[in-house]
Write a structure and sequence with these properties.
This protein has helices at residues 26-37, 56-63, 76-89, 101-107, 129-135; strands spanning 46-50, 68-73, 94-98, 112-117, 139-149, 161-167, 170-175. By secondary structure, it is of the alpha/beta class. The radius of gyration is 15 Å and the shape is globular.
């Protein structure tokens, strides 16, 4: 895993072997961020990374100048890895919360400019995430929500759907 652009560009991060997360591939992540970079500037944004896993997306956002990044991850091993990596890089604007994403969403009173979610592809409640994000008003008016999912999910009829992109087995759906 590597950080593609920004302050920490080119840094390779190696997660421990006991991590159960499925990190977004470098190819898919680079393609995603190329698309996003054409839509907005990360400088000064407030970002929420749900199901943060290895922290790859969070670290990329910090590297690109996000003002504040909040990562939510249930697994203790992944949470510790993100915290350790942040310390190694000297990052102070990445807040890592260990807990259930759905409980976090329900309790959250903050709003974000960019929200990314990479839940386990087989998660039965995955299709409810766009509605939850919008029902809880977590996104600022000009904000973007990106959901990573398998080809088994389809969101083109969702009222906030903007576009869908596929990179190998990785699917991203964009909402506003």
């Amino acid at each position: 895993m590597r950080i593609i652009s920004g302050k920490y560009r080119g840094r390779h991060i190696t997660p421990p072997k006991n991590i159960t997360a499925r990190p977004t591939t470098d190819f898919a992540k680079e393609s995603l961020f190329n698309l996003l970079q054409n839509r907005f500037d990360f400088e000064g944004l407030e970002v929420l990374d749900l199901f943060a896993g290895t922290g790859s997306i969070s670290l990329e956002c910090v590297s690109r100048g996000a003002r504040e990044v909040t990562a939510v991850e249930l697994a203790h091993v992944q949470q510790n890895f993100i915290i350790q990596t942040s310390k190694q890089l000297g990052i102070t604007n990445l807040n890592v919360f260990r807990g259930d994403v759905f409980k976090y969403i329900n309790a959250c009173r903050l709003r974000f400019d960019f929200i990314f979610a990479d839940p386990p592809y087989a998660l039965p409640t995955l299709p409810t995430l766009p509605d939850l994000v919008f029902d809880k008003d977590l996104l600022r008016p000009e904000g973007w929500f990106v959901l990573e999912h398998s080809a088994d999910n389809e969101f083109t009829t969702h009222p906030r759907f903007v576009e869908h992109r596929q990179y190998g087995s990785v699917n991203f759906t964009f909402f506003r």
